[in-house]
Amino acid sequence: MKRSTMVLSAALGLGLAASLTAVPASAATQAPAGTSSARTVSSYVGSAAEEANNKAFFDAVMKSVKAKQAAAPGAQVVTVVYDASQAPSFQTEIANSARIWNSSVRNVQLRAGSNADFRYYEGNDSRGSYASTDGHGRGYVFLDYQQNEQYDSTRVTAHETGHVLGLPDHYSGPCSELMSGGGPGPSCTNAYPNTTERSRINQLWANGLKAFDKDAFTKAR
């Protein structure tokens, strides 16, 4: 399924969500009510609300995983299951993102399947792509068409998936840092986490669900 060509304009960061919202009802069909096909100029500075939203998303996914892990206590490698059926235009990018993360870290792995811990959606949203929760203990990643036209789509997807695994945004970082998102600009196409980010994920997920430590969601440096 080919994505429609959108107007290229300055986008919000790769992961903007000002508040917790329900999954856009119009995802994969049309723009949600109140959004525009053009975007406003914004710097990549992030916000306290955005950081809180990313943490809420992470917590929702972890709760889902923890419930399933109870059936396999002591597992050294945690499997996080995703559903990409509601983002048909991004099947390749989502699969590539999962491969990137699975080859980069050892204590947690991403798998497509049913009974998912989080889902991907697609559509138009003035906030760009972001990770959020549905308010009912489940998480989702929303992939915005326009932003994925302007920025490297695999980087966008891998960045948002980084929130699933516990990494916050760090827009001031260099292109080599995946969670710097859109900070380095559209010319940045790196879709791989750097050594610090990989180490942080392995630390969070060491010995199963260690991610519930109170300091799990901290900025990667």
Which architecture of the domain at 74-210 per CATH?
Answer: 3-Layer(aba) Sandwich
Strand content: 5-15%
What characterizes the major β-sheet?
5 strands, mixed
Placed side by side, the strands forming the largest sheet appear as 2-1-3-5-4
Report what the structure shows.
The protein is of the alpha/beta class and 221 residues long. It has a domain at 74-210: Collagenase (Catalytic Domain). The protein is built from five helices and five strands; from the N terminus they run αβαββββααα. Strands 2-1-3-5-4 form a five-stranded mixed sheet. Helix 2 (91-104) links the parallel strand 1 and strand 2. The longest helix has 22 residues, at 48-69. The chain is globular and about 45 Å long. The termini are far apart. The model is unreliable at 4-22, 25-45 and 213-221 (pLDDT under 50).
SSE layout and pairing:
Elements: H1 48-69, E1 78-86, H2 91-104, E2 108-112, E3 118-123, E4 130-133, E5 139-144, H3 145-150, H4 153-165, H5 195-204
Parallel strand pairs: 1-2, 1-3, 3-5
Antiparallel strand pairs: 4-5
Describe what is shown at a glance.
The chain has 221 residues and is an alpha/beta fold. Helices cover 29% and strands 14% of the residues.
Keywords:
5 helices; single chain; 221 residues; 14% strand; alpha/beta; Collagenase (Catalytic Domain); disordered C terminus
